[in-house]
UniProtKB/TrEMBL annotation:
Database matches in Gene3D superfamilies: P-loop containing nucleotide triphosphate hydrolases
Keywords annotated in UniProt: ATP-binding, Nucleotide-binding, Transport
Annotated protein name in UniProt: ABC transporter ATP-binding protein
Annotated ABC transporter domain residues: 9-247
Pfam families in the record: ABC_tran
SUPFAM superfamilies in the cross-refs: P-loop containing nucleoside triphosphate hydrolases
GO molecular function: ATP binding
Length: 252
């Protein structure tokens, strides 16, 4: 079908330059990339090669110096700030190494927050949070503050939060970077579950165990893509609801 042909994430000649003259850094240098619906892409490479910058550009957290970013068939790199913020809130889930949970809010409140900000009713937001915390194995921790949770538990809350608006794509930046191997294993199990459900996922990682779970691994050096396994698994079934619901509501 025509709509399944458009990749969820697409970068064309994507570049980000910092500084100028002698201090000029090509953090991302003319990267072309496509991630079809339902695929998991891992981006690997040495520290400073541009992985996080690439992820930030793809997720609309940062603006490219040159090139194009497309999400769900729409070009987003020249969206205004408000449209970008709305897009991030409704159509993208982010998971960061440092969790970025709000310390004053309980696990359930942290998960609900992006839904409330996206205009979902409190009742629905609460229902989604309960279901997602259950899915990540934390139903019994819903009322705890982040400080009362382990690192692995915090990251599972962050993952539940990333999913609360049924995003088109989840971007994860070193999601296991602060975790021990048991907690890493648990996050990998949840990523595997996401793949089964057809969630498109792009993750940046140093960890070979994490990269090994992806359908495709792209390696970077000096801002450029220097290796690419290509997709090794045919695309999962893209979920109807979240996918098209998110698309339709971007500019709402
Ligand atoms: N705001 C900025 N200003 C100037 N240079 C920057 C900025 N952000 C990143 N850089 C530079 O861009 C390059 C790529 O950085 P980036 O953080 O994307 O790399 P990375 O591969 O994610 O590294 P790490 O694995 O250590 O997180 C580096 O040389 C970095 O110093």
């Amino acid at each position: 079908m025509a709509e399944s042909a458009a990749p969820i994430v697409r970068a064309i000649g994507l570049s980000k330059v910092y500084g100028e003259d002698e201090s000029l850094v090509r953090a991302v240098d003319e990267v072309d990339l496509e991630v079809p619906a339902g695929q998991t892409l891992a981006v690997v490479g040495a520290s400073g090669c541009g992985k996080s910058t690439l992820l930030h550009l793809l997720g609309g957290l940062d603006r490219p110096s040159d090139g194009e970013v497309w999400l769900g068939g729409r070009r987003i790199d020249h969206f205004g700030e408000r449209a970008l913020a709305r897009l991030r809130r409704k159509a993208i889930g982010f998971v960061f190494q440092a969790y970025h949970l709000i310390e004053e809010l309980t696990a359930a409140e942290n998960v609900q927050l992006p839904a409330l900000l996206a205009g979902v009713s409190p009742r629905t937001a609460r229902r989604r949070a309960v279901a997602l915390l259950d899915r990540v194995g934390l139903a019994d921790r819903a009322g705890r503050l982040p400080a009362e949770l382990s690192g692995g538990q915090r990251q599972r809350v962050a993952l539940a939060r990333a999913l609360v608006n049924e995003p088109l794509v989840v971007f994860a930046d070193e999601p296991t970077g602060n975790l021990d191997s048991a907690a890493t294993h648990e996050i990998l199990r949840l990523f595997a579950d996401l793949r089964t459900r057809g969630q498109t996922l792009v993750l940046v990682t140093h960890d070979e165990r994490v990269a090994a779970t992806a359908d495709r691994v792209v390696s970077m050096r000096d801002g450029m893509v220097t290796g690419d396994t290509g997709f090794t698994r045919s695309g999962g079934a893209a979920r109807g609801n979240g996918l098209y619901g998110s698309l339709l509501s971007w500019e709402g």
